[in-house]
Amino acid sequence: MTWRATILTLFPEMFPGPLGVSLAGRALASGLWALEARDIRASATDKHRSVDDTPAGGGPGMVLRADVLAAAIDATYAAPSAPRLLMSPRGRPLTQSRVRELATGPGALIVCGRFEGVDQRVIEARQLEEVSIGDYVLSGGEIAAMALIDACVRLLPGVMGKAESGAEESFSDSLLEYPHYTRPQIFESLPIPEILTSGDHAKVAAWRRAEAERLTRTRRPDLWVTGQEGRKNTTEG
Ligand code: SAH
Fold first, then answer.
1. b/e for 24-42, b at 16 or more Cβ within 10 A?
2. Which ligand 1 atom is nearest residue 116's CA?
3. For a Cys staple, 3 with which of 33, 66, 181, 226, CB 3.0–4.6 Å?
4. 0.85 exceeded by pTM
């Protein structure tokens, strides 16, 4: 079954956007995954096709109406086992392990908020799982959804070549990736580290591992600590 992203948005014309080029775009064109962007406004019922209203309790901005969004969700077919996600700065921060989980499933139904967000009742009534892409606020969920989809799509079978394999990259084993080098041999008097051109594969692997650990400890002590349990288990087990 083809991995399928079904997006509910007020701006379907934003898709595929950046997902239509390069790795994700080629995979989309060759049918390795499918994308459907649906207009929430198509489910509006009044004559002005309104989708938002002022917040109960007062305050600035507008809120996406529960009835309109629920109708849009109900009118959308998605695989019953596909998670229903709501892009939201209040959600659980997206991680590579959640991305891996999503990529092995049938796809996702992804709701993109706008304005101040969506009416809380629709989150509960349609059991939407709130997902954040980081501790900052975007103007809408579309770019967040694109980030999530891009991260999933590159892991789908056949999308990345063996050469681009994701096995060793950042966050596998809770480590940041080691630094990369390529020609020229000397760049502005900086040479490529000697070990990398030695042809000794074991030494190269050990150097990369040490660099990955050093970078993780210094840049992301949080990741280093959470990853320690898992790393202990792999070296001991
Ligand atoms: N008033 C809200 C922000 C709304 S931003 C608050 O303070 O929490 C409008 C929409 O952009 C949100 O409904 C959500 O869909 C999207 N969005 C903004 N920041 C996001 C983030 N960090 N991760 C995922 N979605 C985000």
1. beebbeeebbebbbbbbee
2. 1
3. 33
4. yes
Query: For 16-56, how does the pLDDT look when each residue is reduced to its tens digit (9 = 90+)?
Result: 999 999 999 999 999 999 999 999 999 999 999 999 999 99
Q: Which of 87, 129, 131 to mutate for ligand 1's pocket (most ligand atoms within 8 Å of CB)?
A: 87
What's the CA-to-centroid distance between 68 and ligand 1, angstroms? 19
Residue 130 burial class via C-beta count within 10 angstroms: exposed 0-12, middle 13-18, buried 19 and up: middle
Q: How far apart are CA 196 and CA 189, in angstroms?
A: 17
| Tokens read off for 132 | 């954040």
Token readout for 51 is: 């989708």
What is the 229 CA–ligand 1 centroid distance (Å)? 33
Phi and psi dihedrals of 74, rounded to 5?
-65, -25
Report pLDDT digits (tens) over 190-220: 999 999 999 999 999 999 999 999 999 999 9
User: Taking the chain, what is the end-to-end CA distance rounded to the nearest angstrom?
Assistant: 35
| CB-based burial label for 141 (10 Å; 0-12, 13-18, 19+) | buried
Average the pLDDT over 215-236 and give the result: 85
Q: Quote the CA–CA distance of 150 and 128 in Å, as a whole number.
A: 20
Q: What would the 3-class secondary structure string for 20-86 be? A: HCHHHHHHHHCCCEEEEEEEHHHHCCCCCCCCEECCCCCCCCCEECHHHHHHHHHCCCCCCCCCEEE
